[in-house]
């Protein structure tokens, strides 16, 4: 081989190696989305998946990614709302080298995942995983079951119930309350918190019903609605979500119960459209993020989302907070190492596109943020839900809700 040919070959080889190294450096950062994509709660899971994909694209990838060009890639894994199936999907994600897991539907699933991830990380220090919980709000997850690897981006059930019961306590016309929810850890946590907080704030209020029903299995909620009407309840509290929220809410309203229904998940994903005029002034939701009036930034983002997904809305702003804060933590850490990223997340403050701030409390990894009580209405609605003309209008705001709330969390922290 002549000197000229050797030089050309070397140059070509060097270019190829540089391209290969660049491609390797730009490998996407994969995030496993473990939530229901089939079964009775598929609509809720699919809505969350679209939000994660859109958040990753608009907040990270279109801005050049993180760490000089690494993009976020959301990997959907269907858990069928089953803790057992969720653990199977977690093993699949880990075997694919994924270091970040997001999940939100069902605190039962979240409890299974956080236990499994903590055990895995102890046994496999070179393949650790962070669990970014965007919607499972069982208080235990940031209290007695807390661990370093779990971060919650939604207000927990107690923080939300504190806001709900404040609103109920202020209404002196309410003397009787009926509590009903799904029979699993979250539903039980909602009921326990409601009884405790109403007792503290309004001991004159009578709890005229407190029951749980099978999750995802009730086809006709009429018998429950009949009991609620017979009880004389002047307000209803429920943590129901998905199809169970639709079924229960419709049955209560159609039974002629003249009482506000205070909910955790009483809007979007077809729920608002289903209630329509029936829900006017009746359905109230506790949530993060102010929808009406919206900030200009959120209005533009929501318009872009609906242009891509005409039948969906941005109904979980905390998903966008999760993606943005993860990207910020990776940049701050200068690496995707889960331990360093976790330490970067602790204490992080983030100004949201919906207005307000999110602070990741270091002591228990519970996100602290503004919480709103909103009413289902078609009056003064700029951002509606389900293309229905109806939406959520804020009635009450609690600034940085839960900031001073106690926690029993005692977590072991690894060396940074």
From TrEMBL:
A Pfam family per the record: Peripla_BP_6
Gene Ontology biological process: amino acid transport
InterPro entries tied to this protein: BCAA_transport (IPR051010), Leu-bd (IPR028081), Leu_Ile_Val-bd (IPR000709), Peripla_BP_I (IPR028082)
Keywords: Amino-acid transport, Signal, Transport
Keyword Transport in annotation: yes
UniProt keyword annotation of Transport present: yes
Coiled coil: none
Domain Leucine-binding protein: 28-373
SUPFAM superfamilies in the record: Periplasmic binding protein-like I
Signal peptide bounds: 1-25
The family this protein is said to belong to: Belongs to the leucine-binding protein family.
Protein name: Amino acid/amide ABC transporter substrate-binding protein, HAAT family (TC 3.A.1.4.-)
Natural source organism: Thalassobaculum litoreum DSM 18839
